Amino acid sequence: MESTRIKKRGGGRPPKFREVRRPVTVTLPERTLKSLEMVNADRARAIVKCVEAAIGGEPKNRKLVELVEVLPGKALIVVGSQRTLNQIEWLNLVEIAPARFLLILPSGTPIEGLEVSLRDLLDEISPDEEDERALLQQLLELVVGQRRKKAISKGELVFVDVRETA
User: Fold this and answer.
1) Whose CA is closest to 85, among 63, 107, 65, 109?
2) DSSP character for 106?
């Protein structure tokens, strides 16, 4: 029979967070340490608060795929991870905010090419990579649904070559 008693803690300070945690050591610039103090006097809480603000809160509340309206009635697809999508060699991911990426398809690449690549990744990804699988599935459903409604199109971005020319 399983015990329902709560295990008593030993001495020491109560935990700061209600989830699995571990100590880490990190070296930060002085200006970052001063900035963290403005967020919270407790560095650990300040770091957690900054990270959650940067990437959209707790994992359960984060959007893996979202549409961000940029013109009236027109939106861009923004994804919250690039790890698995980086396996599509021709797909460029541009980070527009911490852990938020735009999808950039090379000129002439049909939307259907993205669909096929997403399906291939879903076939290959390990079942235990739940977040990545969910992102791929949501992205695929969005692309397929919009294509079937004839509501998806590609536009052009302006790129400037900033490499030094010798």
Assistant:
1) 65
2) P
